[in-house]
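Two records follow; treat each independently.
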Amino acid sequence: MGRIRLHATVFLAATLLGLGAGGGLALAAPPPGTCHNPTPARPEIAQLPWAQQVLAPDRAWPFSDGAGVTVAVVDSGVDADHPQLAAKVSRGRDFYYLGGLPGNFDCVSHGTAVAGIIAAGEADRIGFRGIAPGARILPVRVSDRDLTDNGGAAAIDPVVLARGIWWAVDQGVKVLNLSVSGPVDNGHIRDAVAYAVSKDVLVVAAAGNHQPDSQFAWRPSYPAAYPGVLGVGAIDIDGAKLPSSQLGDFVDLVAPGAGVLGPTRAGGHSYFTGTSFAAPFVAGTAALVRARWPELSAAEVTRRLLATATPARGGKGSPGYGAGVVDPYRAVTDGLSAVAPAPLPPLTHPAPDVARLSAEAWWRNASERAGIGAAAAVGVALLAVLIAVVLPRGRRRGWAAGTAAALPATPVREELPEQVFLLPPPPVER
């Protein structure tokens, strides 16, 4: 089967941040000849990341940590030697190279970061942990690099991606993470995703990254736009949508995706940005729900994730935020009912009490009459006082207009006793 390498095919939607030298604890061992110029190990980062602080998945772990659920990470592979992923990653399979190689190695850390956000376990002095640390990871390797030599997104062969999805579904996974996106509706990938949905696999896909002024900004992004797929957009630490996170009705939820921490190949950690790294927060939450509520179908798990989402800036159902921000604790613990709410009884007005209304009206009228009478009595009294004062004075003046007494030509000086002068009196008084 020939390889399809078209630029407009599906590509990885990811941007790596914080790439630098450093030493790690693990020594990944890719098969000989597979990793050309692999990214180096990174230093460990001990601080608790902001995304884990905001989502607080540890609140859900007393009820579910994802144990018993396997999540397929169809990506660039997963470094199974990383200390926080050891014993959690299956052998998997490599569909990028021929020869039946495993998928549990990674040349660029993209898939390792995605897997770690889903299921990384505890490590001494490290604050970072995955959303579902009890879950297992099935690595399905469908790409070798996430970026081209000039920094652009590396294309993925859609046939290879489709084969990886089909194989992962046949391994019995419950959740499938696709941190890939592209503007082309490819028949091979569409059929593979439809197969996963038909097998009750919950498919989570990145919404994709495009600049707001890009010609693809409002176009559907695949596989997020396929029926039955949970499309995930990215937000930053302030809860605002990343400018590059795509818009559309295929965005069902949002999750942290700006400067989020993840493990890297050969050990250590780094910060990553993009919807590729928002999707695994939702995939990990789906693993928590599938472990806690194993009787729920994939569609029912999706409804639970949407119903328990935290409201986001765009409002419910907005093209940038979907139903809101994924909430692991509520997704696991909230009690939901499939029964529609009972209709409210019709509003009835009680029959009026005629006797009571008549009594109230009588007292109201009586109070008003008493108030008017009191005001009239006060007015009559004031008038009588006015007449008693004004009438005699008017008669004395012959009803002529009164004038004030004339002021004296020279002011009358009051003579004060001598003792009040503390200084000698003025010359005029001597």
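The next record belongs to a different protein.
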Amino acid sequence: MSLNFRFAVISDLHIALPHTIWNHPSRFHLVEVSIPVLENILDRLSTLKLDFLLLPGDLTQHGEPANHTWLAERLAQLPYPTYVVPGNHDVPTLESDGNAIGLADFPHYYRSYGYDNPGQLYYTCQLLPGVRLIGLNSNQFDRHGKQLGCLDDAQLSWLQTVLAEHQDDLILVMIHHNVVEHLPGQSRNPIGQRYMLDNAPTLLKMLREANVQLVFTGHLHVQDIACSKGVYDITTGSLVSYPHPYRVLELRTDDRGQRSLHIASGRVESVPGWGTLQQTSRDFMGERSQPFMLQLLMQPPLKLSQAEAAELAPHLHSFWADLANGDARFAFPTFPASARRYFERFSAIDANGQPQCIDNNATLLLS
């Protein structure tokens, strides 16, 4: 089947109406701009002929009912279908605590955005003839109420059935947590691990067997495209974090039947009241990321002393911002050899050490 369509991805919106915003010195999200940045992007997308829009989770800052209601009503005004999945911020507690909705409440807010069956936290739907979306829920809770990032057995069994029933369709999967590593050693690093799906190998095996190649994720707040044995994990940076990106994607089929996915990324440079949004946001991220940089330096594999980490951390002020922007190249010639090699591994390079700038704009050939 000759498929040609265009869609967009906006991730980690963290929508926060003014009365729901709280301040904390460690807050990493510039949620004050969540609504004006979203409006800016939607205005840009209005000039395009989109077939649909994907929002891979963290739709709200802390699962506030008012923020979920506002977003659902705003999406209803769009001229194209929109599909969502929950992120960890959308359902921070299993049961509603009065401040945030409970896990089972989420589909009821988004019945028009994938959840035809509000009694189920995952879904599948036909986007276009021959094109199917699978929206997964990666939010679970243990018996102590701790939030986990994984797929439960019932969801995996359901997924196996859906993949078998629609093996002739082009399938897109959307899930909040990453399923392929976007950072070196992400699945083993305590900082990066929290952004990975705990049972990602199980999901990847199922997707490969069904020849599913495209997975859209969020959570990490980084522009990155990673591939593992034929499965692409396209993660999109956050609407409320530098560089405030979004993606427009086109799937095309040529005369020989070859399918390719063309990816272009945009940025929101300014919004009313934030004329220097990019620089302000970059500085904000640099300041708030210093505790994470200290952790990164002091934990394995570097295991530097607190004094050694404190000496190097200021040189990493822009590290996370550069990483979030995608396609970064890193060089720290004054660092000790082990630290220099470690941070150079975060550069956008291929297996041969050559530049590989595919995080923002790329063309992926599909089988």
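Discussion point: The first strand starts at residue 5 and ends at 9. How would you locate this feature using only the token line?
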